[in-house]
Design a protein that fits this description.
This protein is an alpha+beta fold. It is built from 5 helices and 8 strands; from the N terminus they run αββββαβββαβαα. The chain has a 5-stranded mixed β-barrel with strand order 1-2-3-6-5. A two-stranded antiparallel sheet has the order 4-8. Helix 3 (116-122) packs parallel to helix 4 (138-154). The model is unreliable at 17-21 (pLDDT under 50).
Length: 178
């Protein structure tokens, strides 16, 4: 391969790579909590809507929806979080894993070691969103699935309901009734 074709090839590769979406982890302060799986983070003076990866919490008008939102608020509102940015969804939200300092930490420089999505599953306030589980690393997928199963078995949170309705079914019912 001569110099000209090599340069053209390298330029084509560089252009292709430049067009790929860039996902970088970031930190910011939580300034809003929409519900049990969606928050807004202030990052460099810009508000970024975050949909927690791997979980689906009840909708606000659904059973346990307000409880899930309150628990998420108690856990992250007004706090600095780290977001492991995975992708953007069709609504432009960042899909990511959200890390926050544990409430037990009593000093100012605690590490962000609490996975907010895992906490919601453990408290029985979200489903492991299996429709998107293939997008999770295997270890995380297994941990999330286990956390949901444990909450179900202990009948905590929404699992105390006789027939908990997954949010994706609840949303579909609402659309089909219109």
């Amino acid at each position: 391969m001569g110099a000209q074709p090599l340069i053209r090839f390298l330029l084509a590769v560089a252009l292709a790579l430049a067009s790929l979406p860039v996902h970088a982890d970031f930190t910011g302060k939580v300034v809003a909590v929409a519900d049990g799986d969606t928050i807004t983070v202030l990052r460099d003076k810009e508000q970024v809507k975050i949909r927690l990866a791997g979980i689906d919490a009840p909708e606000k008008a659904q059973a346990f929806g307000n409880v899930a939102k309150q628990h998420m608020s108690d856990m992250v509102f007004g706090k600095e979080v780290r977001v492991d940015d995975r992708k953007k969804d069709k609504y432009g939200r960042t899909i990511g894993r959200v890390w926050v300092t544990s409430a037990e930490c009593q000093v100012s420089d605690c590490p962000k070691t609490l996975d907010a999505g895992m906490a919601m599953l453990t408290m029985g306030l979200a489903w492991h969103y299996k429709q998107y589980a293939k997008e999770q690393p295997e270890e995380e997928r297994e941990q999330y699935s286990f956390a949901e199963t444990e909450a179900r078995n202990k009948k905590v949170g929404l699992w105390s309901d006789a027939v908990p309705v997954p949010p994706w079914e609840w949303r579909h019912r609402g659309k089909s009734e219109n």
